[in-house]
Amino acid sequence: MTTTTNLSGLQNLDGTYAIDPAHSRMGFVARHAMVTKVRGSFNEFEGSAVANGGVNDAKVDVTIQVASLDTRNEQRDGHVKSGDFLAIEQFPTIEFHSTGCSVEGDTLNLTGDLTIKGVTKPITVPFTFEGAATDPFGNERIGFEGSTVINRNDYGITFNAALETGGVLVSEKITLEFEVSAIKQA
Predict the structure, then answer these.
(1) If we measure between CA atoms, which residue out of 6, 26, 35, 21 comes closest to residue 148?
(2) With CB atoms counted within 10 Å of each terminal CB, which end of the chain scores lower, N or C?
(3) Can you give the CATH number for the domain in which 21 is found?
(4) How confident is the model at residue 6 (pLDDT cuts 50, 70, 90)?
């Protein structure tokens, strides 16, 4: 049974939070060969959120190191890092900078500019608040989970191959997944 935490407690949120990469995940899902999904994640990223008086005024910034891509297959990782897809030599980071935040029921909608491969497009990620806690080390933590779908072609990632049975090797639609644990800074 999954339980979501009411967002009303975040309306009085104040402070600066840093994403804890050891307890967070930045990932993606792509359909492969029209029959299965490939999941991947980025193992190196950093981010912060600053809120003064509630989430509606929160500012979130995230930087992902593209070289840390991991799909659990070294050959595939190399191809996705190449010029056919993410071109890490020219574009070593993926960045997100928020432009707005709103609460609708139990959903926190984070809107901002996502830059992949030098192309910036606005996106909105609906998040659920997973809770707040003080960990055994005295850190104040908050957790969120969210996902959104983008079209990789919008970011200049157009490589594909036609399949003999019809369809293509890699889907245009990519699901971005975020599981975030953030620690309040002193």
Answers:
(1) 26
(2) N
(3) 2.40.128.110
(4) low
